[in-house]
Amino acid sequence: MVRSSRPGQGRGRRLTRQTIAAPAYVTREIPYYALLDDEALERIERHADWLLQEIGIEFRDDPKVLEDWRSAGATVDGVRVRMPDGMARRLCKSAPAEITQLARNSNRTVQIGGAHCVFAPVYGSPFVRDLEKGRRYGSLDDFENLVKLTYMTPWLHHSGGTICEPCDIPVNKRHLDMVYAHLRYSDKPFLGSITSEERARDSIDMARIVFGEQAMSEHCVIMGNVNANSPLVYDKVATQAIRAYCGQGQGIIIVPFILGGAMGPVTTAGAIAQALAEAMAGIAYSQLVKPGAPAILGNFLSSMSLRSGAPTFGMPEPVMSNYAIGQLARRLNLPLRCGGALTASKTCDSQAASESADSLHSTVIGGANYVLHAAGWLESGLVTSYEKLILDADRLGAMQVLLGGFRTDENALAASAYELVAPGGHFLGSSHTMQNYQTAYYEAQLSDSESFEQWVERGSKDASMRAFDRWNAMLKEYEAPPLDVAIDEELKAFMDKKKRSVPDAWH
């Protein structure tokens, strides 16, 4: 049974107003940016098809996936799979162009694909950081805090998955605590575990307890996010997760992870073609598992320092790839996942701001439908920052306004204001201004636009300090969304049984 609650219930006045005002996801009203012409796009597509047909993809340590490809007509040589010309593209056609992922609060159900965009927080960081405690390994307390903050943030539509690794919980059991936290402390959609087939199935089983068998059989209620082992390899972690999720009609996000010069060529066009080939291969396999299973084409292309080997973010080459992969995904009629506010900076400084802004803006304008790492990413993804989560989310609100465009109706053109305001006058007191001031401009909560004297009077706090105050205040105001007591007890019993069935493993 899908549980519902009233958005914003029990929160502070300012937070409540923002949460109610924000939609469950963004619907784009502005055009896409076309970086490449049709001829260039066709060259990249032909090269991706050539990679799949002539070079092939290796599927390692999973005999079942090789059997599936052989039965479908691919050429299997050891673990190398070569697909006849156009095979992957044809299989991708059965994946839905748009995905509805249910939330346990129906008001927060999201639409991914088409003109719709969904923002989710950082994923996969082993470390966390905040101004008070500094950089440290993530804990379950941190994970729960970050789920709560994401739940309370109106511009984050999705709870995400591994917002940080709870490193104080055994590796083979922490997935249970993470899924429980998403289900208990939030009512937004979320991602389950993919690190082993059993953990993927545990995630799906826990979602079934909350949503019920019928909703599970008819809808997508949980998704997994898997990576290709670029270049041109899938391991059993990815393919078993694809079978676990797609076999039960749930969603899968397929993401090549390419650092140019390391896991792909240094040329932008070559890296994009490789990413397209790898993503199509993964989505094609999801459709062999279950035609029509929800699948999202993912992209994570980063440049790197060829002197040190360190990844770089917000640079012009990956920014251009965000635009190009958006065009390619739309030609495939598939939902697109890209990274969001990415940076190599170690702290919330000007480097973090500029790299994150360029990365996020190109992702949004390029047409991503699901933006993972939209808030909180620091230190090339090694760290989830409490302060940056809040600062990035503030900019996501601005991105949402940008995607909505602006109107050109009679009220927007403001003819009535000119009838009241003489040349040389001002518009502040006009009736048109009074009628529109509450919705005229996006109000950035973390930006300080007051005078120098007011800023000093309030403690001379920079943006990180304001964000620190903000997230601490939010956690004090937090109230968990309602969850049926019987369902909560069933979730806890499931977790307890699974944890008692195996000894702790820390590797």
Record the SSE blueprint:
Layout: H1 13-21, E1 26-27, H2 38-55, E2 57-59, H3 63-72, E3 75-77, E4 80-82, H4 87-92, E5 98-101, E6 110-113, E7 116-119, E8 127-130, E9 134-137, H5 140-152, H6 174-185, H7 197-211, H8 213-218, E10 223-228, E11 233-234, H9 236-247, E12 251-259, H10 268-289, E13 295-304, E14 311-312, H11 316-332, E15 336-339, H12 350-366, E16 370-372, E17 377-378, E18 383-385, H13 386-404, H14 410-413, H15 415-420, H16 431-440, H17 452-457, H18 463-477, H19 485-500
Parallel strand pairs: 2-11, 7-16, 8-18, 10-12, 12-13, 13-15, 15-16
Antiparallel strand pairs: 1-7, 2-4, 3-4, 5-6, 8-9, 13-14, 17-18
Description of the molecule:
- The protein is α/β, with parallel strands linked by helices.
- It folds into two domains: 332 residues, TIM Barrel; 26 residues, no CATH class.
- 46% of the residues lie in helices and 14% in strands.
- It contains 19 helices and 18 strands.
- The strands form four sheets. Strands 1, 7, 10, 12, 13, 14, 15 and 16 form an eight-stranded mixed β-sheet that branches.
- α5 packs parallel to α6, α7 packs parallel to α9 and α9 packs across α10.
- The protein is globular.
- The two termini are 36 Å apart.
Quick rundown:
This protein is an alpha/beta fold.
Percent of residues in beta strands?
5-15%
Can you tell me the CATH class of the largest domain?
Alpha Beta
Kindly report the average pLDDT value: 94
How many strands, which pairing sense, and closed or not: the largest β-sheet?
8 strands, mixed
